[in-house]
Amino acid sequence: MSTQAPTISMVAGTTYRFSAAWANEEPAATPIDLTGCEAVFVVATTQGAPLLSCETGNGIELVPSEGGISVHIRPEQTAGAISPEWSGARYELRVTFPSGDVYSLLRGHFQLTPGVLHE
């Protein structure tokens, strides 16, 4: 899985979902077994202070046999006024194996924009 991820751009107070499948780099691209793994997705300020996070069982679902990772950002995680802290925000998706090995699978920039509707 390439760690070169696109900028995530979402409207404040809305739902954002994405999925990824992690496989080895062999020609057959065998899925990585995620049995017993934990995952975390964090959006942080340029100084590293967390703005939002999701983890296994709370916004992240793993499909271990398929190397599948699904992330769900809920509307309430970004609702409200957009503060200057969101400017230049970055995100990262990490997976931790039962052995203690930690892999950074995706990282990039996160852009939060105000919506037209304010419900």
In short:
By secondary structure, the protein is an all-beta fold.
Descriptive report:
This protein has 119 residues and is mostly beta strands. The protein has no helices and 8 strands. 17% of the residues are buried. The mean pLDDT is 92. The protein has one domain (8-113): Immunoglobulins (Immunoglobulin-like). It is elongated, with a radius of gyration of 15 Å.
Taking all Cα atoms into account, the compactness measure Rg is: 15 Å
Give me the CATH superfamily.
Immunoglobulins
Provide the CATH architecture.
Answer: Sandwich
Order of strands in the sheet with the most strands? 1-8-7-3-4-5-6-2
Determine the number of helices (DSSP H or I, runs of at least 4 residues).
Answer: 0
* Cα distance spanning the termini: 38 Å
Largest sheet: 8 strands, mixed
Morphology call: elongated
Q: How much of the sequence is in beta strands?
A: over 45%
Subunit arrangement of the protein: single chain
CATH topology: Immunoglobulin-like
Low-confidence stretches: none
How many structural domains are formed by the residues?
1
- Helix content range of the residues, please? under 10%
Structural class: mainly beta
User: What is the N-to-C succession of helices and strands?
Assistant: EEEEEEEE
- Counting DSSP E segments of at least 2 residues, the number of strands comes to 8
